[in-house]
Design brief:
The protein has 235 residues and is of the alpha/beta class. It is built from seven helices and eight strands. The chain has an eight-stranded mixed sheet with strand order 3-4-2-1-5-6-8-7, sandwiched between helices. Strand 3 and strand 4 form a beta hairpin. The longest helix has 18 residues. It is globular and about 50 Å long. Bound molecules: S-adenosylmethionine (SAM). S-adenosylmethionine (SAM) binds next to helix 3 and helix 6.
Length: 235
């Protein structure tokens, strides 16, 4: 840890521990134990990227912009497909929907619906809906213009199924999480799962004339897992 930041990092860890102490009911006992151990043992800036912790840090607005994956992904989505006036479905928003909150702040028109069984609550308003459940290929998603997912683990598969079935633009930042679920046994390795997802996206985009599948790596944020999206000719 750089010495000049030590004080900030110490305070940030304390805020995290306080949050867990005050909101323990939102987590399982084992989960709390793991989270406490991660917070105790990880250094910064690494801790800004650990999924379960960054989700809490984002809720507490404690991630500096340069390490904030939610800001990075939102900027990418804006550059790639735009968000203004769009009805957006987010797959796997996490426990606290930080990305959706940021979209809601930026959008003048449009609506965002977040699906995740881990969401801390259900919520519905004119601009914002939290669906505390898994999305699947047959889920009703209404009149969506854009489907996005920031490392939604195995939700990536459903995201692509829905985007391709309904001819909806998508942006998906993949992660290692896919093969960690029920489907793990089907895949020998993380690489095998990732190439399955990318091939599926490529075939779907081409079959439905949704343009071309693009794949980019984001070196500042690990760079290991690609962001994939469709790019139509007119874009
Ligand atoms: C690695 S976390 C990422 C969370 C959040 N996007 C973030 O970056 O902080 C993956 C999330 O995807 C959710 N998820 C997995 N499959 C899903 C599905 N089929 N529908 C909705 N959410 C799903 C999990 O519950 C988990 O919260």
């Amino acid at each position: 840890m750089e010495e000049c930041n030590y004080g900030i990092y110490k305070k940030t860890k304390q805020r995290l521990f306080d949050f867990l102490n005050e909101n323990g009911h939102l987590f399982g006992g084992y989960e709390l134990k793991i989270l406490r151990s991660i917070i105790e043992h990880y250094d910064f800036p690494m801790l800004y990227f650990v999924e379960a912790v960054r989700n809490i840090l984002e809720k507490l607005k404690l991630i500096p912009d340069e390490y904030n994956i939610y800001i990075k992904f939102l900027n990418l989505v804006e550059e790639i497909h735009g968000i203004e006036g769009k009805n957006i479905v987010e797959v796997g928003g996490g426990m606290f929907p930080g990305l959706a909150e940021r979209i809601k702040l930026k959008q003048k028109n449009g609506k965002i619906v977040v699906f995740d069984p881990r969401l801390y609550k259900e919520y519905d308003s004119d601009k914002f809906t939290l669906c505390k459940k898994k999305i699947h290929r047959n889920s009703y998603i209404g009149k969506a213009d854009l489907i996005i997912g920031l490392m939604p683990c195995e939700g990536a598969e459903a995201l692509l199924d829905l985007a391709i079935e309904h001819d909806i633009d998508f942006v998906l930042w993949l992660c290692e999480g896919g093969p960690h679920g029920e489907g793990y046994d089907f895949y020998e390795s993380e690489e095998e799962w990732l190439s399955h997802i990318i091939d599926k996206a490529k075939m779907g985009v081409s079959k439905k004339n949704m343009g071309e599948l693009k794949k980019i790596l984001i070196p500042d944020f690990d760079g290991k897992y690609p962001v994939i999206y469709n790019k139509r000719q007119k874009d």
